[in-house]
Amino acid sequence: MDGLSNIGVIKDILSRHGFTFSKALGQNFLVNPTVCPRIAEMGGARPGVGIIEIGTGIGVLTNELCKRADKVVAVEIDERLKPVLDETLAEYDNFKLIISDVLKVDLGKLIKEEFEGLEVAVCANLPYYITSPIIMSLLESRLPIKSVTVMVQKEAGTRLLAKVGSRDMGAVTVAVNYFSEPGLLFNVSRGSFMPSPNVDSCVIRFDIRENTPEGVTDEGFFFKTVRAAFSQRRKTLSNSVSSGLSVDKSVVGKAIAECSLPESCRPESLSMAQLISFSEALKRLIDI
Length: 288
Ligand code: SAM
Fold this sequence. Notes:
The chain is an alpha/beta fold and 288 residues long. It folds into two domains: 7-208, Vaccinia Virus protein VP39 (Rossmann fold); 219-287, rRNA adenine dimethylase, C-terminal domain (Helicase, Ruva Protein, domain 3), CATH 1.10.8. 40% of the residues lie in helices and 18% in strands. It has helices spanning 7-16, 35-42, 60-68, 82-88, 107-114, 131-140, 154-161, 171-179, 219-229, 237-245, 249-258, 272-287, and strands spanning 29-30, 49-54, 71-76, 95-99, 119-125, 147-153, 180-188, 193-194, 201-208. The strands form two sheets. It has a seven-stranded mixed beta sheet with strand order 4-3-2-5-6-9-7, sandwiched between helices. A two-stranded antiparallel ribbon has the order 1-8. Helix 8 packs antiparallel against helix 9. The chain is elongated.
């Protein structure tokens, strides 16, 4: 449907369907007509590509994705949006809607069943209340996808785009850089949404790495160590990891020394390679 990001058209559709926004579901819908075509283009929607969209709203972005990609499968939690989408996306036969919480959908199975022979990418204007869990589950489950392009609130974007070894980094930064190469595509002002949130947003694309960094023998342990390391902001690596993993401080200290790191180093000062060698040293010492 044309003109879908026109605020008058949106208001008319929503009022005809008696739709009211749910704050709890992070429903801030895009009303800036320039944003969705850019997300669709830069997110890789084109012939030969299948797109998974998370959270359709009334289908503003979905519409642009359907125009460009071979197939779009969208997962939306709010079943009140189904009749709205039946109207706004009526012209597309390459669209499928799944009403569910995206965190409960087996996306590996969905990709096998829906996107045979297609390259797959994820595109979404994410509900802000579960930004990190969604991104982490997309990356950690090692889905056969090329990229994940998402709009997130600026604060979440800062953490996701922080460099490993910088002040702004957190456990999510390590995970994101382990599985992908993240990059900022563009910023979006708060006025581009209805209702307008209190913060601006940005669009980030994660290009999935074909090969993750070398040297990790147990990914589960590596990420447990990373989460422990960043669980207490501004604490030393030694304190955070020994309390987070319930490991004696002397053992953590030994692992730090084995990697020739300063005794009182902080996790945010470490590179990916240093984090990996520290977790490997710690694992060897614990396993003894
Ligand atoms: N794509 C639309 C747009 O740009 O206007 C809507 C984006 S809005 C920020 C987020 C959407 O995600 C809403 O439609 C909301 O109902 C949906 N949503 C919230 N939690 C979800 C979940 N756990 N699984 C799937 N969709 C969810």
